[in-house]
TrEMBL record:
Its EC number is 1.1.1.133. It comes from Novosphingobium nitrogenifigens DSM 19370. Keywords: NADP, Oxidoreductase. The keyword Oxidoreductase applies. GO terms for molecular function: dTDP-4-dehydrorhamnose reductase activity. Catalyzes the reduction of dTDP-6-deoxy-L-lyxo-4-hexulose to yield dTDP-L-rhamnose. The keyword NADP applies. Its cofactor is Mg(2+). Pathway: Carbohydrate biosynthesis; dTDP-L-rhamnose biosynthesis. One of its GO terms (biological process) is dTDP-rhamnose biosynthetic process. This is dTDP-4-dehydrorhamnose reductase. The lineage of its organism: Bacteria, Pseudomonadati, Pseudomonadota, Alphaproteobacteria, Sphingomonadales. CDD domains: dTDP_HR_like_SDR_e. Binds 1 Mg(2+) ion per monomer. It catalyses: dTDP-beta-L-rhamnose + NADP(+) = dTDP-4-dehydro-beta-L-rhamnose + NADPH + H(+).
Length: 297
């Protein structure tokens, strides 16, 4: 199976590159400068030569705080850019798997969100990602929109690397304990995407298409996640800090985040047979690699 994916240095694209070898897939990562989602016209024809069976739309404007200051750029990249990727998939007659986010939800309530629950993003990033979902769905019915969350990995920028870096200089980090979600390894996301891609290629049925949640099993607050990170780092001789559990009010940020970000992933399990491992299990190998390489500094 041939999978084209947008981006080069992103967490999900790098994880797909790693996981493709063992899964018998050929991956082409197509990113800047060849394509620029801020100039959607640069997408025209870029996948033709590779002739993919599936296109994965993983590149996005992901700087949640910065998006508040440049909403127009975030909207072009996350909406028009996503639409341009989907249009190429439609033109080639192949499915598109488009990555989206828990930040499309307002974070109210206290049960995990289901795919048909009302969306109501709190910040610019979430607004633009929701607009991107709608653009993709309007362009081609042959899509899977995968809402995932709280991605960590040995690659790119993420909360695990931030915590390890902070712990090098500080005895204590202050972390919000009143935002709850599902930490998700990019490596598990890659495995899930490959399984979904195979299903889409093998089976044309509508039931496999649409919006799905895909996140790590078990929930955590960001403070719980930080504690888990330091527990596993300590076990491997890596950096450690104590975690001061604070409230969102005590950690002001330009973009508001949802308090309840938990995703119910039952639909994906039922229809695609994909269940991601618990985040504590998947965190181990990621911390192993980061501590061994020191690549969090
Ligand atoms: N990170 C997270 O916690 C979560 C992410 N998501 C979604 O999952 C997807 C993958 O996220 P993740 O792997 O973490 O992303 P990263 O933040 O690690 O990387 C962003 C990727 O997007 C590319 N990109 C950004 N702007 C442009 C542009 N103008 N033109 C072309 N490419 C661009 C980057 O390019 P380059 O390779 O040149 O650096 C990079 O490959 C995204 O759609 C994101 O919205 C969903 C939930 C959680
Ligand atoms: C660094 C840091 C963050 N925080 C808080 C701020 C915020 O509420 C929460 C997470 O902060 P971050 O900026 O690392 O994470 P953030 O950029 O909000 O992560 C989000 O990224 C986008 C792309 C997504 O799609 C989401 O699923 C989610 O993963 O932790 C602390 O309390 N203490 C700290 O030292
Ligand atoms: Mg961030």
């Amino acid at each position: 199976m041939r999978i084209a994916v947008t981006g080069t240095h992103g967490q999900v694209v790098q994880a797909l590159g790693e996981r493709s070898a063992s899964s018998g897939c050929t991956i082409a990562a197509i990113g800047r400068p060849e394509i620029d989602l801020a100039r959607p016209e640069t997408l025209a024809g870029v996948f033709d030569r590779f002739a993919p069976d599936v296109i994965v739309s993983a590149a996005a404007y992901t700087a949640v705080n910065h998006a508040e200051a440049e909403p127009d750029l975030a909207m072009v990249v996350n909406c028009a850019g996503a639409g341009a990727v989907a249009a190429e998939a439609a033109r080639l007659g192949v499915p598109v798997i488009h990555l989206s986010t828990d930040y499309v939800y307002a974070g109210t309530g206290n049960r995990p969100w289901r795919e048909d629950d009302p969306t109501d993003p709190l910040g610019v990033y979430g607004v633009t990602k929701l607009a991107g979902e709608r653009a993709v769905a309007a362009i081609t019915p042959d899509h899977v929109i995968l809402r995932t969350a709280w991605i960590y990995s040995p690659f790119g920028t993420n909360f695990v690397k931030t915590m390890l870096r902070l712990a090098v200089d500080r005895p204590q980090v202050r972390v919000v304990a009143d935002q709850v979600g599902n930490p998700t390894s990019a490596l598990d996301i890659a495995d899930g995407i490959i399984a979904i891609a195979r299903n889409l290629v093998a089976d044309r049925s509508d039931a496999l298409r649409g919006v799905f949640h895909m996140a790590g099993r078990d929930e955590a607050s960001w403070a719980d996640f930080a504690e888990g990170i330091f527990e596993q780092s300590a076990a491997r001789g890596g950096p450690v800090a104590s975690v001061a559990r604070i409230t969102t009010d005590e950690f002001p940020t330009p973009a508001p985040r949802p308090a309840n970000s938990r995703l119910d992933c039952g639909k994906l399990a039922e229809l695609h047979g994909v269940i991601l491992p618990p985040w504590r299990v998947s965190l181990g190998p990621v911390i192993d690699r980061l501590v061994a390489s020191g690549a969090f500094a």
